[in-house]
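Collaborator request, handled under Task 6.
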Amino acid sequence: MTDLEFNKNEDQLKQLVYQLRTKEKKTKLGGGEKKIDEQHQKGKLTARERIAYLIDKNSEFQEIGLFAGEGMYKDVGGCPSAGVITGIGHVEGRLCMIVANDATVKAGAWFPITAKKNLRAQEIAMENRLPVIYLVDSAGVFLPMQDEIFPDKEHFGRQFRNNARMSSMGIIQVAAIMGSCVAGGAYLPIMSDEAMIVDKTGSIFLAGSYLVKAAIGEDIDNETLGGATTHCEISGVTDNKFPNDQACLDYIRSLFKKFGHQEKAGFDRVAPTPPAEKSEGIYGLFPSDRAKPYDTMEVIKRLVDNSAFDEYKALYGKTLICGTARIDGWAIGIVANQRKVVKTKKGEMQMGGVIYSDAADKAARFIMNCNQRKIPLLFLQDVSGFMVGSKAEHGGIIKDGAKMVNAMANSTVPKFTIIMGNSYGAGNYAMCGKAYDPRFIYAWPTAQIAVMSGASAAKTLLQIRVNTLKSQGQQITKEEEEKLLKEITDRYNEQLSPYYAASRLWVDGIIDPSETRKIISLSIEAANHAPVEKFNVGVIQT
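Structure tokens returned to the collaborator:
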């Protein structure tokens, strides 16, 4: 790669990272400055201020789902960050999942994406055996969309089932009622191990004063109905009340000081060393033109400790790179798509980013080895899919692909996925896409996720549209066809965007490539809280 190409790549990726930072800053304002001021006037901290106060000083909060709801529900003013903030952070040195309703966004009301995000947070806690802290401040279900959030298996009620399941699993849950807590949502804090409430600002009831008046004709104010005094001194529903947010959060920290320690998985870690090749060098290596090849090994060298990588079967199945390394001291097995064109011993040229039979066969064996040795797995995706055509089919590509998917799907060591570039079709699946339970999955700003590339999909969709028009007796001119192609391409490209994926929680977040090491390290630390089950690959095609 020439210096000119390197600089061009670097400029473009840095611009994408700048756009990411700008979006992050805007999204973190939630409902906006005015709504933030309203919270302060009530004597309340905002959700983000509560989290910042709660976590250990000089520690970081790894947010999950920042862009959930991005661009959605525009007809009702949007729902930034799905109206709830979720992520992992340290409290008194213990890593935990924190879930905090953002009252600046529609009073913390639950939209369909809010339920999905809460369930993702609980899923992470359950998979990794992390304690959960709920900071409750929500007006309940967003009624105009109740049919999309209330009755189904993956809707609002599933969180209470999860509360019960986590309790039976021995996962600690504590809750603080710091604002409204209404209707079915009232069960979340009360199904936790301990429930605190902030005096005068916190309230909890199955039905508010207006609904009580309408239902049974009783006149009563919300504070008398379900305030801190009522529930700490009369009903016994909550355990302790506190004069303000800070005192309540201090109490949570005091609880965490005394918790006993749980059994861990025991993943290997040594003193970390930085990569010999600087992580920022990734910016220049990643092509601005995604069709251009590049050497993924150079990216790996900028992610792993001392840039040291022990490659597995380096001379075989070369469109997938497999091997072991360390990231921030943690032992890790890496499966990565090689994006440069490679040549087999038989003289066959293989396209980068495509999974061939030999590569799938190699990856399956490597994944099984990592399970045998209790080494977590990292998948680095830049994949166009599996090889197609008569030669690939006759060579058993489906059989070998199934073998890789089987090994990956049954893997019991934790899996982590970073989508660096393309993530298309069955390649997304084989490289541990969202459907295959990665403990955490993140995308770079360069990621594209879809069943196929934009160009291929647009041409296919155009042909379907043109043929439909012709079958209806309509003729289409060349100019109309080009206009139609542009419309289809633009719409499909919007769906390819990593922000489109992040808004729907297909990924847990979009990250700066230079922060990949830090995020993977924290992810392995979280996964280390859950002992690994015995690995059984089941029946595989040989």
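The cover message to the collaborator said: "Residues 242 and 248 are 6 Å apart (CA to CA). The first strand starts at residue 62 and ends at 64. Please let us know whether this matches your experimental observations."
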